[in-house]
Amino acid sequence: MSIALSEDQRALAQSVRSYISRADPLAEARESLDNPTHELPSGWSTFAELGWLGVHLPEEYGGAGFGLPELSVVVEELGSAVTPGPLLPTVWASAVIAAAGATEQQAELLPGLIDGTAVAAVGIAATATLSGVSVEIAEPVEVLCAAMADILLVAIGEDVVVLRREQVQITGAPTLDPTRPLSAVTTNGSVDAVAVLPGASANAVSIGRTLAAAEAAGVITAATNLAVEYAKARFAFGRAIGSFQSVKHILANMLVDREMSTAAAWDAAQAASDNKDQSALAAAVAVVTALPAAMRVAQKCIQVHGGIGYTWEHDAHLYLRRAGALNASFSPVVARADIADATAAGIRRESSIELPAEADEYRTQARAFVKEAVAAPADQLRRLLVDSGYAVPHWPKPWGRGAGAVEQLVLEEELSALELPQYGIGEWVLLTVVGHGTAEQHERFVDASLMGTVKWCQLFSEPGAGSDAAGITTRARHVDGGWIVNGQKTWTSGGVTSTHGMATVRTDPEARKHKGITMMLIDMSAPGVQVRPIKQITGDSHFSEVFLDDVFVPDADVLGEVNGGWGVARSALGNERVTIGRERLGLGVTYSIHDLFTVVREQNSGMDDTVADLVAEDLALRALTTRIAELAVLGAGPGPEGAVLKLVGSEHGQRLADAGLLLSGFLPAGSELKMPVHHSFLEVRFQTIAGGTSEILRNQIGELILGLPREPALA
């Protein structure tokens, strides 16, 4: 998935891809390795003609009048081809001038940067001095593409100064990525700046970080695609190397890095129009997420290719050079410190989705319902919710409202004041009953379940089967009027409190593994059903093992076709995956890592970087969730984001709990906060097991999303 979401953005991205396919900037990047140059790339005039240099700038100066989101789309796509030249520093500089420059400064500087007749570069100078308009850069400042620039922006303290090329001394500097050479910039004593942009330094840093993250996302996408295609085509030991689980997991992690980085870069671009605290936090998160990920992915791209990836002739090291240079120039280390400071200061990322006009009608209806519900007796609230469809609005009518993405997002806001029923696993089961059940089953189960008199569990997992949902040994034989079921299920969440369970049962033992399975609805109070709670490492017993000894299940309680249960089960598993993916952020952690960090930070815990990484991961996950909602509003189908949310969300919760435990060591003796910290530390171990282990999820990402070959069946 790319940064581009809207129709206009996708069209813009496609225009850049079309240029890349025609001009092959990657070949030009390769040429610059052998023949480094400070000349503009061959496509520079085309960039201007196509409007990319001014896509984010006001129309009155020749720009397209869009903003940083559209500019990020261009930067991402060109980054995927390691496009050489000063586009990134030039558009970075013009964005700063547009944001902070006076009208006359914009009128003087922006037209040339838009039409390509002027090139710009940006430097962050920690030791330079500024007095009025007098600037002195005594210690060299490392600046990207300075030797190509006509205009240099230098951040000094809280301000940004604009200098002309002839006012500075530029000498070459060691460069990891010759496609965009570095230079050391100084002044010969004091010079008078062309312009001073007061207070623009912080925003300049945020803009630079946002664009660097967008470019890193492009590098990640290209390097991932390169590695995946090689893993499909390269054979070793008689099989494609992509079929090996170890390689599959490397590539799945690369896809995860791609989705997380793209989401963080997208969020930073969206935040550019927010207040400075929000934009600064989002930009820092984007750098901490995307830049190290770009380096990891580029390194793993070489690893997947093996020896050929380590050769000069192969393109893999071009991505590694660009990723490494981005990390060196835009320092995730400094960005982590900024995130830690913001977290301790109580700054939290806020985000929202702009909804179309139809949302107003849904909002009016919802508010009228809330008014009615608040006035009704408390014991009537659930009945009102169920009858109105607001209990499960996304369900089809008559049980829900058939609510699309827009209405669901409105209801998420408007119904938040009500105590809504939580169905847990029951919602997954009921959706399956609605989709595959008979009219009689609908009549018997759906309303009673929504009202809470029928409670459901899932009877899928079996001893010895692990994450293999088709590894079913529970069997049933047909008798007059129904089936006699024998077997054992385990890891059944809510088994003790459930009235009914949805079970996978093997009804044709001669059929192939995924055939001969039937889905049955089992009364948990029926003779022969025995539920034994399993005590967890926390001391709780949220799941159980269930023994089925000659349990009679009427024909009327078969869900779907006999021997057609695997299709029903896949539907149920799909329901579970979407729900868990959406709600998984830090699940099992019952306290705020932000608040805990704020309490102990003054004690020099040494945890700043750890907490900053966790905050960045949390916000990237939330950005991914927001993008899913945005795509749903736009009518796009599901992508890989849900699988990434499930995988990273569960592991994120564990990392949160681990960090919380370390931070709790700095709490006062006897602090009440230690108890939830300890409980969460144990509780979260389950999160990478429930609903499919992280390892199995990586296999699924590799095979179902990346299209890697399956593991051959063992002889």
CATH hierarchy, class of the largest domain: Mainly Alpha
What is the fourth-level CATH superfamily of the largest domain? Acyl-CoA dehydrogenase/oxidase, N-terminal domain
Biggest sheet, spatial arrangement of strands: 1-5-6-10
CATH topology grouping of the largest domain: Butyryl-Coa Dehydrogenase, subunit A, domain 1
Detail the poorly predicted runs: 574-584
**Helical residue percent?**
40-55%
- Tally of discrete structural domains: 4
Portion of residues in beta strands equals 5-15%
Rg, rounded, reads: 29 Å
Shape: elongated
CATH architecture of the largest domain: Orthogonal Bundle
Q: What gap, in angstroms, lies between the N and C termini?
A: 38 Å
Average pLDDT rating? 92
Count of runs of 4 or more consecutive helical residues: 22
List how many beta strands DSSP finds.
Answer: 20
Major sheet, described briefly? Answer: 4 strands, mixed
Secondary-structure-derived class: alpha+beta
Describe the model.
There is one protein chain. With 715 residues, this protein is α+β, with helices and mostly antiparallel strands. It has four domains: 7-199, Acyl-CoA dehydrogenase/oxidase, N-terminal domain (Butyryl-Coa Dehydrogenase, subunit A, domain 1), CATH 1.10.540; 359-421, no CATH class; 430-565, Butyryl-CoA Dehydrogenase, subunit A, domain 2; 574-612 and 622-705, Up-down Bundle (Butyryl-CoA Dehydrogenase, subunit A, domain 3), CATH 1.20.140.10. α15 runs antiparallel to α16 (439-451), α15 packs antiparallel against α17 (565-583) and α19 packs antiparallel against α20 (641-664). The chain is elongated, with a radius of gyration of 29 Å.
